[in-house]
Amino acid sequence: MSSMINPSISVDCVIFGFDGTELKVLLIEFGRRKDGADPSQLKLERKLPGSLIQEKEDLSAAAQRTLVELTGLKDIFLRQLYVFSDPNRISKPEDLEWIKNTYEVPTSRIVTVAYFALVKIDKSVLQHTVEGVSRWHGVQSIKQLAFDHKQILMKGLEVLSQQLLNEPIAFELLPKRFTIRQLQNLYEAILGIEIDNRNFRKKVLNVPCIKLLDEKEKGVAHKPARLYRFDKAMYEKDIKKKMKYNLNFIRFTD
User: Fold this and answer.
1) Which residues contact 7 (CB under 8 A, 6 or more apart)?
2) What is the pTM of this model?
3) What is the phi/psi pair of residue 26, to 5°?
4) Cα atoms found within 13 Å of the Cα of residue 42, Cβ hemisphere only
5) DSSP-assigned letters across all residues of 213-250
6) Which one is the CATH code of 2-164: 3.40.1190.10, 3.90.79.10, 3.10.20.310, 3.40.50.2020?
7) Which CATH class is domain 175-240?
8) How many angstroms separate the CA atoms of 86 and 7, rounded?
9) Where do the DSSP E strands lie in 107-207?
10) What is the pLDDT of residues 75-102, one digit of tens each?
11) Are 202 and 173 in contact (CB under 8 A)?
12) Which single residue of 14, 135, 179, 206 has CA 20 to 30 Å from 126?
């Protein structure tokens, strides 16, 4: 394996998902030996899915390979996020030792190119992730990650929050048929704010590519809400015509 690996460049993926109420991120659980402890005693840590790249592999291919190998996910929204190049980002002896043992290559510095991915959390996704070493965690509950991955996660959340208000990426996290309440929950979860219900609904209904369906929710304890869908083809066609869409549906409460 070592002859195929570039020991100085890696990719790390911030994979966001939404379960209807909470924004989540997919993390890899791994164990490494505590300093001075018995080799059989491992310290359980969490990190973002990532990998050193292969010598003949471009960055996007490396990110896609990493997603498939570590999570089973493929054909999902994936976009380059940021380059983390601090010379000291991977400098702790235990970090360097873990990389050497995992990839069978010595290294003294790694530049990582971070990507963020958006996933609809459904039964097929859970089948890939629940039983393996990858687990979904609420973004707000994460206090610490291995390496500098907490910094990468927060950068991913920052960029997601910015792009949410300018591009229709919210619909990459929602089911194909959704309620306005689900859409509002998503905005609130990502932005960390409360949104005025009536104003949000009014703005959503003014967007031509959000289509009302002749369907309602099923199997819910409350009054079933109307369902909507995002017409991606219409959106892309309108954008080519230089039409402007206002996807900033928010209004802060007093």
Assistant:
1) 52, 99, 103, 105, 106, 107, 110
2) 0.89
3) -90, 125
4) 9
5) EEEE--S-SSPPPEEEEE-HHHHHHHHHTT--------
6) 3.90.79.10
7) mainly alpha
8) 16
9) 111-120, 134-138
10) 899 999 999 999 999 988 889 888 988 8
11) no
12) 179
- pLDDT tens for 176-203 read 999 999 999 999 999 999 999 999 999 9
- The residue ranges of the chain whose pLDDT is under 70 are 1-3, 33-40, 123-132, 250-254
Rounded to an integer, what distance in angstroms lies between the CA atom of residue 249 and that of residue 184? 9
Rounded Cα distance, 16 and 164, in Å: 13
Cβ neighbors of 18 (< 8 A, separation 6 or more) are 24, 120, 121, 173, 174, 186, 189
Q: Which residues contact 229 (CB under 8 A, 6 or more apart)?
A: 176, 177, 178, 210, 211, 213
CATH 1.10.10.10 residue spans of the chain: 175-240
- Joined together, the tokens standing for residue 192 give 């960390």
